[in-house]
Amino acid sequence: MQRYYISTCYDGANYCGWQIQPNGKSVQEVVSKCLSLLLGEELLVTGAGRTDAGVHARFMPAHFDVQVPIADTVALVGRMNRFLPKDIAVRGLCAVHADAHARFDATARSYEYHVVTEKSPFDEGHAYRLPYAVDFEAMNQAAKRLFDYTDFTSFSKLHTDVKTNDCTIYRAEWEQIDATHWVFHISANRFLRNMVRAVVGTLLRVGRGEIDIAGFCRIIEAKDRCQAGQSVPACALYLTDVVYPYPLEW
Fold first, then answer.
1. Can you tell me the distance from the alpha carbon of 86 to that of 54, in angstroms, rounded to the nearest whole number?
2. pTM of the shown model
3. Fewest CB atoms less than 10 Å from the CB: which of 60, 81, 130, 236?
4. What angle, 0 to 180 degrees and rounded to 10, lies between the N-to-C axes of helices 136-144 and 195-207?
5. Which of 24, 55, 70, 1 shows the shortest CA–CA distance to 240?
6. What's the CA gap between 151 and 17, in Å, rounded?
7. 207 within 8 A of 164, measured Cβ to Cβ
8. Do strands 237-243 and 56-66 pair parallel, antiparallel, or not at all (unpaired)?
9. What is the bridge-based pairing of β-strands 108-116 and 128-129?
10. Contact 199, 231 (CB under 8 A)
11. What is the gyration radius of the CA atoms in the chain, in angstroms?
């Protein structure tokens, strides 16, 4: 038995998310079926996490096991990309040790959330057009306070089965790309379900002047999802990086 990591990227608009669901088409399902067909054995890829319906990924690593080692990983990547739909691509394959785990071994993950302040046909379905003016400097000041906390229950989807809502945030900042395009960057050792979209939704309340920075902190300290802002649309969220404690040679 040989274990491999696979690097995938995808536009999530047409999928119910990464993880296989009973009521929709998932990225995990499509990639697993493609590999099973090309390798001639039934297998299932295990991702570094699970993105929600409509969320995109520039880098989603996953692992899978095969009975017979792959003779030419570069050739297999090419075959997969010819077989897969246009909204999913494979960037690389590499052999790893038998107990490597794409999800549990990850030490950090990074996301981006894209917003635009004017209508653009090129951003439709891939960025959130703000229907109101916001103060990005105020939102950046509030984002810095995320470093002061570890319990982010207020930004977690309700009734999840995780053992802890503690996360360590390494980066949280808004970056201006051009006159109408801003990106929120956030990195942490782990994320809760719906966390990034809830954080952005609450920061936008700061940007609109509905709450101040002290109010933002009180929302975190309340550990109550009902006090935080609404989750922003999934279409503007991208998983951009996953870090491991060992090198991967794609």
1. 16
2. 0.95
3. 81
4. 130
5. 55
6. 25
7. no
8. parallel
9. parallel
10. no
11. 19
Extract the tokens encoding 152. 């982010």
Element at 172 (helix H, strand E)? strand 169-178
105 is an active site residue: no
Mean pLDDT of the region 67-79? 96
Q: Report the C-alpha gap between 160 and 165 in whole angstroms.
A: 10
Length of the chain (residues) = 250
CA atoms within 13 A on the CB side of 46: 13
Whether residue 57 contacts residue 239, with contact meaning beta carbons closer than 8 Å, is answered with yes
* Rounded-to-integer distance, Cα 144 and Cα 151, Å: 15
How confident is the model over 118-149, as pLDDT tens digits?
Answer: 998 988 899 999 999 999 999 999 999 999 99
Q: Per residue in 48-63, pLDDT tens? A: 998 999 999 999 999 9
Tally the C-alpha atoms within 13 A of residue 232's C-alpha that lie toward its C-beta: 27
Contact yes or no for 89/58 (Cβ under 8 A) = no
Per-residue pLDDT tens digits for 158-202: 767 778 999 999 999 999 999 999 999 999 999 999 999 999 999
